[in-house]
Amino acid sequence: MTRPTNTAQISLAQPNIGPLEVELVNQVLSSDTLAMGSFTRLFEDGIAELVGRRFAVACSSGTAGLHMSVRGLGIGPGDEVITTPFSFVASSNCVLYEGATVRFVDIEETTLGLDPSQVRAAVNDNTAAIIAVDVFGNPCRLTDLEEIARLRDLVLIEDSCEALGSLLDGRALGSFGNASVFAFYPNKQITTGEGGMVVTDDAELARNLRSMRNQGRDEDGTWLRHVQLGYNYRIDELSAALGVAQLRRREEMRRARAQVAAAYDRLLAPYKWVKRPVPAVGATVDWFVYVLQFGPEVDRDRLVTQLERREIPTRPYFSPIHLQPFYRREFGFSPGDYPVTERVAASTLAVPFSSRMTNEMVDHVVDAIASCVAEQGAA
Ligand SMILES: *Cc1c(COP(=O)(O)O)cnc(C)c1O
């Protein structure tokens, strides 16, 4: 179980912080403006430009952005929202925050996103919205979902929290539907520590988002005048400065991640027992995580333990939302409810992936996976 020192400390994910980040955050620290300042606006303008949206509103997390989008688009009690159980829990919790009903629809195996034909079948008189998730940075069937939303007069929210920088037919993810949401937790393509951003072309929604994130103040921002129920979902200037620096270095980090993905692709290609992540048709993907799908001959859970013993962290990705203890208890979901989601979730594994991984590290991880699978007698 020894390994070369140059592959020490392989992490599942790793932020990439350089001198520019330190410099810009220091600028904030030596100013008197630690919140609601020019870095927040710069960060917003940068994201709006990158994804081609008219408005961007920064906030304290992706979850806060999803919540404000649901609320700002008028979704509430009595409304049903169609969304996917194969996601991070925030993409359906945001529906519950507003007292609306989550209507899960199963995924398709190709994109791991919502299956449009099942979405069509699930739409009824109470359906108010679709929340579509771009899983691992890969677009779901956004063009079809936009069409369904248009024909049935539904709100479409794109949870693009994992998809900053990915494209579908040349169009940026985060540019579909009424609003899209990005997240900047340290494992995402760019990070602000904690942070999020809602992007939209809807001026009225943008105005409302700015009010909601700021305690329900109106545009003139009079400090003790609150025109609606609001929240403190603001981002601070330190985080925004970090975001501005990361945005400037985005292309460099994207290229590094693409190289790591290509190395995995090349080294794993000979093995029949594993499926590598594949961009959707027409997509250019900047992967958020690199997720493998193992065939039935591999015991995925045993592989996790075997790799752990070799100090290689991995994580089953995702664990279905409908099978989380809270969702089972509250809504009575049980295994078998969403078979494609469950089958996929039982076979997937996120392996170490970041812009800071070296070729030696990727080599080491692939060697370890191959020898663990051989130990299982499956290779
Ligand atoms: C990261 C993520 C979010 C938001 O996460 P925060 O930690 O609140 O920033 C939402 N949806 C998906 C699919 C995510 O991966």
* Strands side by side in the biggest sheet: 1-9-8-5-4-2-3
Uncertain segments: none
Structural class: alpha/beta
What is the overall pLDDT average?
96
- Global outline: globular
Ions and ligands: pyridoxal-5'-phosphate
Nutshell version of this structure?
By secondary structure, the chain is an alpha/beta fold. The protein is built from 13 helices and 13 strands. The longest helix is centred in the C-terminal third of the chain and has 19 residues, at 250-268.
What report would you give on this structure?
Helices cover 39% and strands 14% of the residues. The protein has 379 residues and is α/β, with parallel strands linked by helices. The protein has a 7-stranded mixed β-sheet, with helices on both faces. A 3-stranded antiparallel β-sheet has the order 7-6-11, with no helix packed on it. It has a 3-stranded antiparallel β-sheet with strand order 10-12-13. Helix 4 links the parallel strand 2 and strand 3. Helix 2 packs parallel to helix 8 (237-248). It is globular, with a radius of gyration of 21 Å. The protein binds pyridoxal-5'-phosphate (PLP). Pyridoxal-5'-phosphate (PLP) binds at residues 61-63, 87-88, 90-91, 133, 159, 161-162, 183, 185, 196.
